[in-house]
Amino acid sequence: xxxxxxxxxxxxxxxxxxxxxxxxxxxxxxxxxxxxxxxxxxxxxxxxxxxxxxxxxxxxxxxxxxxxxxxxxxxxxxxxxxxxxxxxx
Length: 89
Fold this sequence. Notes:
The chain is mostly helical and 89 residues long. Helix content is 48%, strand content 0%.
């Protein structure tokens, strides 16, 4: 086969849904196990987050973003943790 950078992708054809299903069945027959669904598993109702819009003071948001960067997580995670602490108290 040619080197990947020499492959002409515009000439490649797409695999159809019917072919994909046939591949899945063949793999299941070969391994004897059902194929697992890909992606994130569904969450329990208690664990689902509800998307909302909220207005925050710029200083509060700036603090949350700095704290998030320091800890290596998202700023919404920081805000959620603080609110959960207050709700549990």
